[in-house]
Amino acid sequence: MTVRGKLTALYGGLFLLCGIVLLVIVYVLVRDALPAPTEFTNRLGVPLPDSQVAAPRPPWDSVVIDSLEVYRSATLTTLLVQSGAALLIMAVVAVGLGWLVARRVLRPLHDITATARRLGAEDLGRRIELSGPDDELKELADTFDGMLDRLSRSFDSQRRFVANASHELRTPLALQRTLIDVAMLSDDVPADMRLLGARLVEANERTERILDGLLVLARSDRGLSAREPVRLDHLVETVAGGFAGVEVRSRPWTVAGDPVLLERLVVNLIDNAVSYNRPGGWVRVEVGDALVVRNSGPFVDPDTVESLFEPFRRGSHDRTGEAGHSGLGLSIVRSVAVAHGGSATARARPDGGLDVTIRLP
Question: What pTM value is reported for the model?
């Protein structure tokens, strides 16, 4: 039962309980106010003026007494039945009024809920700003607004940090790579130093890939600042053209989102499927009601599939694996999908490999 239903039941139940108590009180008062037939007939005896001996009582017929008893009983029964019927009718009316009153009482909560649903990392400027007396609901709304102010400041700080980190971290990496490349141009560099330089360049490239992945992950976790129509089928065909042996079956599908993040999602999916495929295997991409990427890779334990969406996870190896991968591919895929209001799931194939499914609104 909803809160509105509970309040309505509470209002109706309390009204019915109070009505029953009132009906019992009125019934008891009326019953006591109506004299009994014998008491009524006894009051009709007239005493003698100069004597303490009461005048003889008239011979009341038993029919009169029975009639008075029937009248008293009928009066109390009529009072009980008609009052009970009126109480039931008013209880129904009270339930209807309670339903309307509960809606009015809960309206501020509906405003709070509606505001929370419209909120996103890209739009924290909405506030409830509930007006009215300083009651519990206004205190709740003001507390919610204060929380949004703190979240807005936190997200703004995070955006500035990501932007600054992108610049400050890329610059020294690019400088290191340039210095290594310049040092390797000399003809008198020993072979061991040239090998060391090649390994340093490889480590530098790996660091750049990890940095790029972390920045994309941070950007997608913040949500979307703007949306535009993107033909996902065209995007998939373009990205798949850069990989050998990828089979694409697509239907027209347009989604609203960030084209850069969606492209990164598709690139990571296909690159992951190609990189973790067995020799001579196949990779299939289907675009329809959902984006599905399948490959014929090695066997994956179904119990560990969900952990592949965690950062720095590569199958059964944690924070290890090929130097060409940062371990952020599927983490970025899920983050981008969630930022677009969708989902990313994976299923281990019985014969080896994965089926990764992306659903977007």
Answer: 0.54
